[in-house]
Amino acid sequence: MPGYDPKLANLVAELNRSAPGGPQPSADPIVDTSSIDRILSSAARRGASDVLIIAGAPVMLRLSGALSPAAGPALTAEETRSLLLSVLSPAQQQELHRSKSVDLCFSRESIGRFRANVHHQRGTLSGSFRLLPEKVPTLESLHLPPALRKLTDARQGLILITGPTGCGKSSTLAALLDLINTNRHHHVVTIEDPIEHIHANRNSVIEQIEVGPDAPDFASSVRSILRQNPDVILVGEMRDPETISTVLTAAETGHLVLSTLHTNDTSQAVSRILDSFPASNQPQIRQQLSLALLAVVAQQLVPTTSGARHPALEILMATSGVRNLIRKGEDHQLYSAISTSRNAGMITMEQSLAELVRAGRITAEVAGAHCHRVQDFERYLNDF
Q1: Do 38 and 164 belong together in one domain?
Q2: What domain range includes position 256?
Q3: Is the pTM above the cut of 0.85?
Q4: The domain spanning residue 83 has which CATH number?
């Protein structure tokens, strides 16, 4: 395996210094790589959100959204293998051997809770670790708008959280579920892969099912959940047509359903759902979606002037006009409907970014790099 390249490390450091949001925190001092617990403990103390363990490179820490090599030698293939296998149970090691990749969550006393993925690359093992907050996050702690609270008052329908990997979708779902747990007396069932946030019963009773240990897959689990007398269902991700179809049916038949998709904006979420089905089935799916949808929230985390990250949101609320556009297949008009419906609680990503710039949280350059329609963003920024 190739050794640690100082030139590469210097290049990464230089990219971080010039990244939007300004200089990034240093990963020094040297990380103790004698055990995975020592690595994760060091990462937690430094406020890293993620840790990458890859043969031929030093431990990599993601600090304020930017990736930085920790001071210290590159890991050998054998060191990497030993570190990563130490977090896997025998069953998880078998899954890794069979599928070449395994997802898991685990806790370390006095360190925290982690979500991890261990996989193969170039003949070696690699791993990524996400540090999860000790407490279930709130909308306030995530800097999400209070308007999202109203979504949890609904008795039935579908709430979708979308965005790229690492944008905080799971945290947003957890915050919404915590509101339901606090304010309502309901039976809540989640299906997750893996379980990230542990919810203790408050006014609601919560069951959390994990794909693998508790259920074979999302689709069959959602079908089973419908027979468990739930009021609220959380589906970690709508991955396949069968899961999507079952989720839509659940949202139509008296359940409040929360789930996620990997799309960059709200209109793409509608298209992704429809494109999952053959053309002959899409009229029926359009009808179901138009009736079941409550809201789509697309989010991304943007570097701030202080070096932290702040969410920027696009919110689509399923008003009668929006439902009609979806039913008629006029998805291309959804963005226009959002941009002209601030009174209904909607906002485009460009409007959200412009507001963050005006509030002094982010720079115009950073906002421009994260918007989907630059001309619209510039217009919103200049209107104020």
Answers
A1: no
A2: 146-347
A3: no
A4: 3.30.450.90
> Looking at the structure, do residues 200 and 310 belong to the same domain, yes or no?
yes
Amino acid at 58: P
Radius of gyration of the chain (CA): 22
Query: What would the pLDDT profile of 221-258 be if each residue is shown by its tens digit?
Result: 999 999 999 999 999 999 999 999 999 999 999 999 99
Residue 24 is given by DSSP the state: P
Distance CA 211, CA 247 (A): 16
Q: What is the mean pLDDT of residues 88-112?
A: 92
User: Encoding tokens for residue 110?
Assistant: 């006095």
The two tokens of residue 77 are 């293939």
CB 129 within 8 A of CB 40: yes
Q: Is the peptide bond before 164 cis (omega within 30 degrees of 0)?
A: no
Whether residues 117 and 200 share a domain: the answer is no
pLDDT tops 60 at residue 12: no
DSSP assignment of 220-271 equals: HHHHHHTTS--SEEEES---SHHHHHHHHHHHHTT-EEEEEE--SSHHHHHH
Answer whether residue 9 shows pLDDT above 50.
no
From residue 291, how far is each of 21, 202, 251, 253, 264 by CA, in Å? 41, 31, 9, 11, 23
**DSSP annotation of 184:** -
